[in-house]
Amino acid sequence: MIGLVVNPVAGVGGPAGLAGSDGEEVQRRAGERGAHPRAGERAAAALSVLAAARPEELVVTVAGPMGEDAVRDAGLRPVVVWHPPAATTATDTTDAARALVDAGADLLLFAGGDGTARDVASGLPEGVAALGIPAGVKMYSPVFAVGPRAAGSLAAAWRGEGSLPVVDREVLDVDESQLRRARVEPRLYGTLRVPYRAGRTQARKAATPADERAAVRLAARGAAARLRPGIRYLLGPGGTMAELARELGVPKTPLGVDVVLDGRVVAAAASERDLLEQVAQGPSQAVVSIIGGQGFLLGRGNQQLSARVIDALGDEPVMVVAPEQKLIDLGGRPLLVDTGDPVVDTRLAGFARVVTGPGTTSIYPVHAPENEGALHAT
Amino acid sequence: MSLPIAPKPAHRRFHQARWDEPVIFELSTPGERGVLVTRVEPGVRDAVGDVVAALPEGLARSTPPALPEMAQMRVLKHYLRLSQENLGADLNVDVGQGTCTMKYAPKVNEQLIATPKLSAMHPLQDDADAQGVLEIIWRTERMLAEVSGMDEVSLHTQGGSAAIWANIAMIRAFHEANDEGDQRREVITTIFSHPSNAAAAKAAGYDVITLHPDADGYPDLEALKRALSPRTAAIMVTNPEDTGIYNPAIKEWVDAAHGVGALASYDQANANGILGITRARDAGFDVCHFNVHKTFGTPHGSGGPGTGANAVSAALAPFLPGPRVVRDGVRYDVVEAGPQSIGAIGPFHGVVPNIVRAYAWIMALGADGLRAVAETAVLNNNYLMKRILEIPGASAPYATGRRRIEQVRYSWQELFEETGISSEEIGIRASDFGMHYWTSHHPYVVPQPFTLEPTESYSKSELDEYADVLAEVAREARETPEVVRTAPHNQTVHHTHHDDLDDPERWAVTWRAYRRKYPDAVGA
């Protein structure tokens, strides 16, 4: 069954020029500037696609503006299984997500932005699929459909065609108060299992791995084959690094930097200071993946790998590991490094050799946006 | 006074025939005969003896084959009905075949290859009985050497990946012959080149380095220089790439490769737009191939058979695949491949009917005609691009605003974001108007891709009709999206779902793979 939760205040800050909607104060000011929430409309637009394909579909949802209204506007029948308290907060989204899954939702649609994705991710039991209807101001997380109608189209396919393939995608969020001072510092908050349509875009002609998980596994395998004895490898956060750890048979903290030497972990969830201590003990190399959609290698979600740490590493301080598709999805935009130290960033800028599989690499441009005086593109 | 003629509709009505047609085995009627096979004449029988008795015992069937028993006319009807239930190659406008050039193959050429002088030949026949065919092979090789500017050509491979494999196999043999086989372990390609280049290099044991385009969407020379080293065995690039973008700095690319002692291999899968205009040799390439079955006339339908022409410089000539046809001034002979050759890639002399088609095609056009083909293909493509880019929601990413060679990889991403209708759904709906629009756009660098390649075969009115159909479907995607989403409506078969086939967790392409994947189901 399809579940729907709407963050009714998502996106309210955008039209008001407030770069996000977090916090009561921002929401109040947005209201004063004449902004009105748009998440409900966008959720209804998504569901109208589902309604056209499957007019009898039942959607489990939350009472009122958190879902029920949008389901009705789309012409579908809501099954309300959760009522929010009078004043809604972020934890309501988390509680609602959990309630919808308990009521039988196997695909949870959520309308909102990165903050909503975070709240959904923390409420969702293992194995349940989720998909974002983009309705926020900032959406760094690659867990959203490209548009509301595209989300509805995927939901219709989910119900019509049986199970679609699902992939693990990162949930990221930035601190909006920093964002308002023109600093983008996305953090990694976890992953969601997102449905995608392999058969809709792929045909069987080339040796491209059809399945994204298989592509991540290949990239990790390619990296594993390049590891040498006697070298400390500083494995960054993210799904690709988790897969590399699996290849090596070692545990991995999902959001931390772990140091691996000769097939065993010598430091887990290391801080910058821990890493400097490790690097001082012998030859070391950082291993990082690419933040999907954004292209950051360093400076986002892995700040432990600081300029000082990178500076202490050898001639090839960083090994970059990612499936080719992650490069392709950047649509021609460069990879980015932002360690905060212009000298280190300049040293890393130019071209990176990205390990994409066993015996396959790609050469891809790397920029240091801070040095170029450009604000990070979203 | 001219008769009043109704204006041609923007897109015509099409409805596929639908037959309740059983499979042919269900049509079988015991005792019904097709053709009566002529009895062997007594003189022949006496001379040859009992040929069946001469078969080894192990080759003989113990029971007759379970073939359907039907009169010839019923067989004909059966297959004609089936042929009406699809978008036949001679029926639709197939400029949307993706990266597979579809062009009109003159029907007179089909008559040539159907003649018993060709169709009744056997590849092991004595060379003396095959002088005409061997001459055609030899002369076609010489003509393709002229078209490419290269020194030697072999028509032995079957085009596409087989020809690309021959390219890398020759490069490997060359380096090994020069004692650099151990040192040169890397092959460089570009993300927009046909993926078979990367795949063939990988299969040949090389590490593959893929280059991404520069900020303008062109192959990035700086990235190439960064990737080149004494470890480089070769660059393997397609030009124009599968996006239709021509690398204007191709000479610099080849020179840079040569600068580190690497070879340069040219994938001319998209040669339709360069015939008589550019030559591989003039850019300095060491080896190139043509897909003879595409560029030189044979329609590429349902997977083959293909024919490749591998063209090389004199330095690489000893490594060409074989056997080869040689001429001693008067006579043509088939000789086994030489000691340095990479050997046979396919059986015998390649696909001879395709070689004859290509020979006839080139002879009919002449040198000026080949150039006119390229010019027309490029004009057709850029005219169609102008029409397509007028459709709201369609775009041509990379090298934006620039012209292309003979094809363009377009994107429906904007329309998809607006409507949720995908490129594949548009393609299926386009078939309701009798238009072919396929889904091969590897690598998937362009979101919601569609690749159109009109070649020189299509008239302006057909290109207009094709563009009008896509404009109509794009309008439907906005106004009546359910019509598009639930297409096709005018066809025998509804659309299929690929997901099972694309999911490595579920697929099993061979019985052995199936048993490995599902040991419980079959007992390992």
TrEMBL record, chain B:
Name used for this protein in its record: glycine dehydrogenase (aminomethyl-transferring)
The protein's Enzyme Commission number: 1.4.4.2
Reaction(s) this enzyme catalyzes, per UniProt: N(6)-[(R)-lipoyl]-L-lysyl-[glycine-cleavage complex H protein] + glycine + H(+) = N(6)-[(R)-S(8)-aminomethyldihydrolipoyl]-L-lysyl-[glycine-cleavage complex H protein] + CO2
Keywords associated with the record: Oxidoreductase, Pyridoxal phosphate
Enzyme class: oxidoreductase
Top-level taxon of origin: Bacteria
Function: The glycine cleavage system catalyzes the degradation of glycine. The P protein binds the alpha-amino group of glycine through its pyridoxal phosphate cofactor; CO(2) is released and the remaining methylamine moiety is then transferred to the lipoamide cofactor of the H protein.
Keyword Oxidoreductase: yes
